[in-house]
Amino acid sequence: MAAKRSTQMTIIGVSVFIIGAGLVFLGLHSKKAAPAAAPAPTQSAPVGTTVHAAGVGPTTVPIVIPDGFSAVAVKLDSVAGLAGHVAPGDLVNLYATVKSGDKIKGLTPPYAKLVLSKVRVLDVTGVAADGSGDPTLLVALTPGDAERAIFFAKFESMWAALVPAQAKPSSTSGVSYANDLR
User: Cα–Cα 20 to 30 A to 127, which of 16, 21, 85, 165?
Assistant: First the structure.
């Protein structure tokens, strides 16, 4: 009698589980369900296009590209990429180091110059848990800023610097041997 009762309880438990899972599945995948109201745009939930971060399986996190921006990947070496201290959501300034070429705006190569200020980091890949590795920063840039970042990342080199969220956008005149001899 006890064996028959435990079998019945097991069958009831499995049935309840299957019915519950089916209802959850239908609730999540119903085409007739009204879409949930979109949250009001905030800094933590910007409006834009959602893409998925590089990764495999359920740990992949959606990335939101703000409207009017593009997601641009910039590969940096470990030190220039903040040595494992940058994370999605951080703001960075991007600096270019120019090795050769013509004098531009009073700067004679080699020089370093801030090229983009307060850039939002959407994702970071290529960094191990211990902070080692060469990071690739996925950053949100306007099309014009994307051109600048792509140019300097391809033909020169770039460095990132963390910036506090409350900092105002910066600009600099750049540093070269000609203007920084002390």
Answer: 165
